[in-house]
Amino acid sequence: MFRRIWALVRKETKSHFDSPVAYVLLIVWLVTVSYFFFRAAFIMKEASLRPLFEILPWLLLFFVPAVTMRSLAAEKKDGTLEVLLTQPISEVEVIAGKLMTNVIFVFIALALTLPIPIGLSLGGRLDLGMLAGEYLGAGFLIVGLVSVGLFASSLSRNQTVSFIIGLFLTFILIATGLEFVLMAIPFSLTGIVRQISALAHFDSMIRGVISLSDIVYFIALTVIFSTLSYFGLRQDRESRASARYKSLRLGTILIIIVSVLGSLIGTAIGTRVDLTDGRLFSLSGGTLKILQGVPDMVTIKLYSSRQLPTETQGALRDIKDKVLDYQAAGRGRVKAIFKSPKDNQKGQQEIQEAGVQLVQFNVIRQDETQIKKGFLGLTVEYQDKRETIPFVNQTDNLEYQLSRMIMKLTDEKREKIAFLEGHSQPDMASIGSNSGAQDRYDMWKAGLREQYEIIDLRIEKKKGVPSDIGTVIIAGPTTDAVGYELKALKEHLGRGGSILALIDGVTVNQQMMSAEVNENNFMEFVADYGFQVKPHILFDMKSNQMISAGGQGNYFSLPYPFWMKVGPASDDAIVRDIRAVTIPWAQPVTGKRSKPLLSTSNFAGVQTKDLNIMPDPEMNVDERDLDERVVAASRQLKGGGRMIVVGDSDFLKDTFVSAPESGNIVFGQNAVDWLAQDSSLTEIRSKTRQGRALVFPSERVRDLVRYLNLIGVPLMVAIVGGVRLSGRRKLTRKVFGRE
């Protein structure tokens, strides 16, 4: 059987590539994919293929029907289908062969996009696991949509009609997952309709998580439409009144029912594989360590409305999977409970007692806005204590929140972290100034308070640093420390304590866009431990943030090299999974005995004198002076003490930690964890999904990657097609005869 199918596949594939239509389709496909991808990718500046796979279903919407429309329609029109079926080959084998042929062709089209990630890797580190999930998800989507296109081709002898039918059916499968379509149907049916959509299952897979429910869905989709294609072939050869036709119809219905039931069972099982780098969607080693130390039963309760809006359905599934992961990893010490209280007084009282927030959703249905009330919250209970997430509005950091709450409930002892006071200049009333005002670290402190006891420390003469303080944070000092203070800090390090020093070699007034040397003896203090912080300002010509400039209604964006996006300089746990940290007006940190943590790209320069931080779109620098520069480093001291020095104090202030996809607060909390010698949450926190910076070595390389994909690969296809078609044309003109 397989030999006959493979013979048909080879014949059909050869037929595909003997026609110029195949090469035209591939060229149009490649140009369209490359155009839309690079237009989005170079704006986002992220080393990810997400923009490509977000538009892929819509490109396949046209591409797949164009490939499959002639598969059976042309055979019927030319009368070759009857000839084919007179051969020792069955209808099942014909359908299987046609399906495999078209899948191979579309797979070739997909494989021709591989130069895009290869080129992209020149500008950033791709998540190879997620990339594998994206291509695997695309593969399943292609097989499913090809089966739909094959069914459409079986319905008509006209290729154009087959194309339109295939386009319509594919659009339904994709569009049923879109919000504007779901708005037009009753609210109670939106969850069911969304599960029918191929787009919903594809979106889940391109995250890098391969779920059994998604695989079973695409298998069921392929089986259903392949069965319908088989039915379409057979029904033309059977009498409607015959017993064989009735058996054929009954068998087709049963296969469809079994496929649907199989898909539903697969959804209920929920088994999945996390392919992402760092296993973003799986429990980390830190969580497993926390769960192993749980002394008694912990109960996680998920409260969810029975009818949630479609935009939260995907989040609900992720939350349930995560909670079940905790239960499995807890090995009897973690219990998961899913609750959906009724929408009545008793139900509302239950969620109020749990601390879960009842929120209003504005839902547009049938040309009107409806207000629906609902809830999606979590509680973690241990003995007589409870922690609550009133409303889960995102799942990116859900593992961190759950593990943090479990640790907080079960850990009786909390280490003290002290912010050193008394060495900051007055607030300069300008966002981004090195004011040292502690209220500028509100968001960072709030995160630390979840795990530690945060206090302010003013060192008094003859008292030193209290022995119950584990870590001292020196944030942006602008005045000298007196001798007894420095002595106390050294004694603190000598007995195994830790220090996080955020040292500004230069103070910046953002309002005046001016900078001046910050003279204080804290730079001498860290120098005693092998860290050199110089009063210079770093800038990065490639990896930096965009800022708005202009005035009087005429604003524009331009790159600001002094707000650098720095990345990990080592594989240390503090920075291992951090993608980027935005550090403004930083100073270089050097030291032979220290371990680099954060560094710039290879295109960073340094201003040593005549400091000028004004935005300048035509900033001229000598490329020979550009190099990688370290801005943060750590050191394990003799006696057990630890120290981290960062050449900036602004990056952990609220202005910068609140930036989208910022790794600033993650680095700040990881640094404190390492200094406190408590790494349980470090690995979990670092797993929060952040964008990977896309920085090409030069504009020439960037343009080369773009145009090789936009022009080079299509041109290669055109050349291959031209050579093959030219060879066939010569072969047809060749005169054969007997000698």
What layout of secondary structure does this protein have?
Layout: H1 2-17, H2 20-44, H3 50-68, H4 73-78, H5 80-85, H6 91-111, H7 115-120, H8 128-154, H9 159-175, H10 179-182, H11 190-196, H12 198-205, E1 209-211, H13 212-235, H14 243-269, E2 272-274, H15 285-292, E3 298-304, H16 313-330, E4 334-339, H17 345-354, E5 359-365, E6 368-374, E7 376-382, E8 385-389, H18 398-410, E9 416-420, H19 442-449, E10 453-457, E11 469-475, H20 483-494, E12 498-502, E13 506-509, E14 514-517, H21 522-527, E15 532-533, E16 537-540, E17 544-551, E18 554-568, E19 581-584, E20 589-590, E21 595-599, E22 604-607, E23 630-636, E24 642-646, H22 654-657, H23 664-675, H24 682-686, H25 699-733
Parallel strand pairs: 3-4, 9-10, 9-11, 11-12, 12-24
Antiparallel strand pairs: 1-2, 3-7, 5-6, 7-8, 13-14, 15-20, 16-22, 17-18, 18-19, 18-21, 21-23, 23-24
Helix pairs in contact: 1-6, 2-3, 2-25, 3-8, 3-9, 6-8, 6-13, 8-9, 8-12, 8-13, 12-13, 13-14, 19-23
